Amino acid sequence: MTLTPKSGVLDIEAYVPGRSQAAGAAKTFKLSSNESPFGPSAEAIKAYRGAEAVLGIYPEGTARILREAIAAHFGLAADRIVCGNGSDEILTLLANCYLRQGEEALFAAHSFSLYKIATLANSGIPVEIPAPELRFDVDIAVAKLTPKTRLVYIANPNNPTANYVSAAELRRLHQALPDGCILVIDAAYSEYVRRNDFEAGIELVSGSQNVVMTRTFSKIYGLAGIRVGWAYCPKAVADALNRVRAPFNVNIAAQKAAVAALADRAHVEMSLRHNEIWRARLIDEIRAAGYRVDDSVANFVLIHFPDQPGRTSLDADRFLMSRGIIMRGCGSYGLPQCLRLTVGSETANLAAIAALRDFAAVK
Ligand SMILES: Cc1ncc(COP(=O)(O)O)c(C=O)c1O
What we know:
Bound molecules: pyridoxal-5'-phosphate
CATH topology of the largest domain: Aspartate Aminotransferase, domain 2
Oligomer: single chain
Number of strands: 13
Number of domains: 2
């Protein structure tokens, strides 16, 4: 008997997560998955523990308490919010709902690998556009739109390049979309951006019928382990996603923790301040050590290594791992010459800077 998956499935290169262990190092610093160095707020942990009493009971099926908390926090309509088991789930559900065999999903090179996975899993055609100077180029995207384009995924800010597309450019992209195409703004890192010309996407969703914004509790809220994300959608899209998602896709402990995390603004502000200070310092110090580092608006930085024996990203990674510094190799993002470094705790950041300096000094 031969079991054959749908066309596209076997073309998928399985997602490569950030590594979490460095064999042999006495102390390790996991700076490979853009998690918060602070983890969740104490209030979120308390709320998570408070779920003990209801562990035996199915949660309310629409994540109502979380949708209502998000709606109140951001001033949105709760019935246009869909929660997911991480924003990963929602990004995938969008393809499950809207992409038919042979239809196209467009995204930029060097962006989050899930877009391609979700496309191929639905027998869709991935249209990966070039990213000159590692930036999403709206003109190139517009030129590649066809009547078959159903989804345009854009990570804003982008992982792993740490740059962003301005609100005006996003609007320009939106205006060029063909009929029946959804613009998916993946705003997983939006909380970290402090730029006047940036918008996470709420206004664009509110003012149109074909834009979805996804957000996550995995980054600034420090809840990556319990998997909570959400989308703000047009009503009709929320309706479609709600038909397709698993009935109890966000567990009760995750819902409670996320509600509490949202309310603890002091924790978020503290994480943000730390990120601003250390992102700038990491960039300055790593550049001063002789590396090319791109500007960043997120909670990570992209470091480039030369194609020179002994100096490559693989050589650097080996050296860094021996010192317990776990960064993210970017081969799966089409950037094998780069390592991505998450802004960590002060101790971790100082250890990363010292290790990079020492690697630069190796003869
Ligand atoms: C750009 C981007 N979008 C989405 C996600 C997924 O986040 P979640 O933990 O909510 O599934 C990530 C995770 O690293 C990401 O980098």
